Amino acid sequence: MSLQGKKALVTGGSRGIGAAIAKRLAADGAAVAITYAGNKAAADATVAAIEGAGGTAFAFQADAADPTSQRAGVQQAAAALGGLDILIHNAGVAEFSAIGDDTDETFDRQFGVNVKGLHVGTRAALPHLNDGGRIILIGSVSGELAFPATAVYSATKASVAALARGWAKDLASRNILVNTVQPGPIDTDMNPADSEFAQQMTSFVPLGRYGKVEEIAGAVSFLAGPDASYITGTALTIDGGAAA
Ligand code: NDP
């Protein structure tokens, strides 16, 4: 129980990677709050799974792209937990189109959730975040590698890694450690392993398969825990060797 007594907020914890992170941090002993955009049933299922395993969990609707909503979600989570030790920015959206098909709306939605949501959420969390805390951002291997029709999404995830590097320096005096986890293709609703696109993606992965959400959650657990006490301002890519 390496996170016993810790208080963690996971944005976008209703499904996919975020739900797996919430469950893993709770299994490690943390009390957990999650936010979700609109899927209350999935959020309730994450909370029920954690509580069914003997943990503590809360869920709050908060649109990461809407600053007022994002700030309220963070404040509700901090109030329910009685403070924060661990902040996981996982909520994200992907809308793939080539530059000729991009629109102002697809650009704004992706930067709104994937980048501005992190900026607003971190600023809202800081007054509640204990010294010695952890902030972990879920970026993407796409922040380092270009694939066709993913330029804007890739730009958001390169920005995520840049935010982590800067915040690591800003917050080092409080011993708050800030890192990015960069998944490769992981089997979720966003990127199902049985899609046509998946066959193409898998051909770029030396391990020859999609990753599982638990394989990301395990790395997040490590970065949130005591063994990562000298790791800040870096990115851990978990992609089956795709970027190697
Ligand atoms: P999913 O689409 O499966 O789940 C997305 C989660 O984010 C849901 O909980 C959803 O809530 C929430 N969410 C979406 N938009 C918002 C919003 N505006 N405000 C608050 N919450 C929101 O995605 P994944 O689990 O696959 O992805 C999680 C993260 O991992 C993202 O940042 C993604 O970019 C990143 N990633 C994923 C990869 C993959 O291959 N799957 C690869 C690399 C990075 P709700 O259920 O209410 O809709």
Automatic annotation (TrEMBL):
UniProt keyword terms in alphabetical order: Oxidoreductase
Keyword Metal-binding included in the entry's annotation: no
SMART domains: PKS_KR
Cleavable signal peptide: none
Keyword Oxidoreductase found: yes
Boundaries of every Ketoreductase domain copy: 6-189
Family: Belongs to the short-chain dehydrogenases/reductases (SDR) family.
Name under which the protein is recorded: SDR family oxidoreductase
